[in-house]
UniProtKB/TrEMBL annotation:
One of its GO terms (biological process) is plasma membrane copper ion transport. GO terms for cellular component: cell envelope; membrane. Residues 285-357 form the CusB-like beta-barrel domain. Residues 142-281 form the CzcB-like barrel-sandwich hybrid domain. InterPro entries: Beta-barrel_RND_2, BSH_CzcB-like, MFP_Cation_Efflux, RND_pump_MFP. The keyword Transport applies. This is Probable Co/Zn/Cd efflux system membrane fusion protein.
Amino acid sequence: MKRTLFLNHAVYCLLLSSLAMSSVVLAEGDHDDLDDFSGIEMEDGHGSHGDEGHQHKKEGHGHEDDGHEEKGHDHGGHDEGGHDEGGHDEGDDGHGHGEAASDAELNDVQRRLAGVETMVVKHQSLGDSITAPGEAMLNAYRTTRVTPRTPSQVTERHVRLGDHVKKGQRLVTLSSVEMAEAQGALMEANVELRRVTKLGRKVVSEKRFVAAQIAYQLAYARVSAYGMTKKQIQSLMKTGDATRATGEFHLVSLQEGTVISDDFVVGELIDPGYVLMTISDESVLWIEARLTPEDAARTVLGAAARIQVGKRWIAGKVAQANHTLDETTRTLAVHVEIANRNEAVHPGQFVNVFIEGNKKQQGIAVPVEAVLRGPDGDWQVFVETAPGRFEPKEVTVLSTLGDQMLIEGVTEGTTIVSKGAFFVQSEMAKGGFDPHNH
């Protein structure tokens, strides 16, 4: 009985050992399988699917065949964070590391069609910007109003609204009873003066001679004050025909300019002082901007200004500053004088005004359109390094006045793109331009 129990116990122990050995073998087999699957997953992560995907030692850790041994990586690129065979070493990860273009080349045709222009930059001082709405108005120093000086009737019109007239050009013909009387008196005085002058002072007394001279001068001054020009008066007296004293005369333009207003009809009776026409030289206009007293204190006569009219910019300067506040708005009127080329701006038109303040800064002055935001958010300009070749240059913006910007980051004498910078930037983007210039 004891022998039987001993044998049973021995058999039981052998069975337990056998089961333990089987568990160990099974565990090791599972580990190998897991390692093989890990090797497959790792190979898939690198885009490589070989015919022997379960050879762990050859393809999982050794990497003799995939070139990683040259870089000393022993675990399928895990030390590289996955930047080994996914295309990152060949510079095609979208960031332009390696062979990305850092400039753009444009031929003459491209530059002309895209409107690309360049400029040589230079140092300049620029003040802070004072911004205000403005309204275009006539330059009062280049404007005249045509008015009669006696009660008159319009008998003929010689120019129309919008016509360009020259100085001395006939504008309108008037007829006046007062002018007729003055013309008659002038012709009579002229005849008397000729008579006494012809007789001489030996025959005519000094008193009569002086009286004739005075009468002539008074009559001449009267018709002149009523509106006749020197040329018209001379023409009237030259004939010596008293029947020409009809009271008809012409109002002429006192300056070269454009007929801005025309408020009458032929046959209308006009009172003295009534404005028949307004003639103005629109080549130079005023822009009236209303500033707060604090902003007005920061401006000086002659200060530079920029006027924005739609998408156009016009240079100007402060010509006048009012010293009395408007009772309603509590603002001061400042007049900016601009050169109105081709009469592009008209009186009454609303504009935006940017006046240079007295806080000056030194830097490189460039057009606003020459400075763009790069892909990384920094300001940049495009420098011409060779004819037709441009590359970006990061800059710092110091201040802005209208369409002018003060920057630093480029040296004086550098040639940059002043117009068409966006096109150049687009061409660089097409070529894989890297904003960091790596």
